[in-house]
Amino acid sequence: MSEPPLPRHIAEHIKYWHPVYTSIVHRSEAVTLRRPPLYPPGYAIPTHLSNPAPFPFNLDPTTNCSLLLLFVLLLHSSLQTGHLFQQTPLLFHILSRVTITFLASILSTFLFEILGELLTQRLQTLSQKIRDIVSEFLVRRFEWGDLDQDNNPVREDDEGGDIVLRADPAFLHEPVREAVSGGIILTIHYLTTLLLRLFNDLISIHLSHPLLTLSLPLPPESSTTSQTTTTTSLLENLLPLLIQSTILLPLLWLTFSLFLARAERFALPGQYGHAIDDPKSSLFAHLVRATTMHLIAYTAYQAVVLVTPSIYPRIPSFLKMNSPFLSKLFPKASPLPAVLIFFLHYFLRHLSSFIAKNARGIFIPYLRWFTPLTEDGATSLWPALIHPLDEEMNVLDPGKRVISRVVMTALFGLESSWPARYHLSNLVPDD
User: Packing angle between helix 83-108 and helix 279-311, nearest 10 degrees?
Assistant: First the structure.
């Protein structure tokens, strides 16, 4: 029995979002959308109904207005008594570090996973174009290849393969083509990297210092500070890490699961009943996953910055890079921070996923609000939504970029441990 055709609005939705999804996640490879199984009756509500909104989205306008007035009164009272000025600096530093670190993770996702991927694809297209130009020049100028009936160089296939060069006794044609085209491509990559570096330096002049001052936990400047100052400094340094690892990271994992569930809404009974994924929701799920991994990387970096000065005097000498030869070869080598980076990535991933997996009671109402699932459907689907988190725990997977961060930190210092572009696709091999 053939599957009924897709409704027009779904077909147009998929036609628009599928190329965007494959371009960003699967590097423009010809990847078909996943076809989830059709769920049995009772998993979803009818299309003319909607699930109730959870707290705080279910509050009526009167309650919202009352809470806003209460907040204004408390703020006015704090300003009059002076309590706000006494507590604001600590609260501001904590919230600013958490907020800016979270925004840095979102910005990293946009720059690396979206713009970085699109730039890489353009460079690959340009590289192939340069290779074709060099090959055509060698064929026409030196007659190193054959021409077809249309006076164009012969290619390997009709779908745009490489231009074929005739075999020569010295086997120099291929190496010459590779050397010339490779030299031009390397020059373009170098100039692109130089422009990105200049752009980064330009941005750093205006933004880097205040951002790092607010977001990175630095140790106290003096060891002679009072007990109150030391306690305040510990709160400023530790609470952002605690908030990021126990609140933000689990929330991001749960948001990732929300988009995974929403991506299968076309296959739900009572809705559309078509076994096909929503590419828009799948794209957002991968971007939320990338943001989570960026936040893990920034949190691990901040923790290493915080703890390294206190434990460095107690570590064995072989971890301090005391060898004169190695110190000259790698002047910024940091083996201890590299080890800490590895274990913190492992710890943060497992801690945040453990919290997310045990938040079913809190999460189910939001899952139902975000998707047309019934309560029984959401409860039954919960294990399948949480299972992908187990695949994110493998820190040895090259696509997670943990090992590359560890190696870069060990050889070139802690500042070389982030950021990095992740491999989002589970279908296209990592290069």
Answer: 120
Nearest to 380 by CA among 42, 51, 49: 42
End-to-end CA distance of the chain: 41
d(CA 164, CA 200): 41
Q: How far apart are CA 139 and CA 393, in angstroms?
A: 52
pTM of this prediction exceeds 0.85? no
Do 408 and 416 touch, CB atoms closer than 8 A?
yes
- Do residues 336 and 408 touch, judged by C-beta distance below 8 A? no
CB contact set of 180 (below 8 Å; sequence gap of 6+): 134
| Apex 104 CA angle, 103 and 110, nearest 5 | 90
pLDDT for 203 equals: 59
Q: Which residues share a beta bridge with 147?
A: 153
Question: CA separation (Å) from 304 to 80, 243, 378?
Answer: 41, 16, 39
Helix (H, G, I), strand (E, B) or coil at 49: coil
Phi-psi region for residue 401, left (φ > 0), alpha (ψ -120 to 50) or beta? left
Q: Using one digit for the tens of pLDDT, what is the confidence trace for 348-404? A: 999 999 999 998 888 888 888 888 878 878 888 888 888 888 888 888 888 788 888
DSSP 8-state secondary structure symbol assigned to residue 139: H
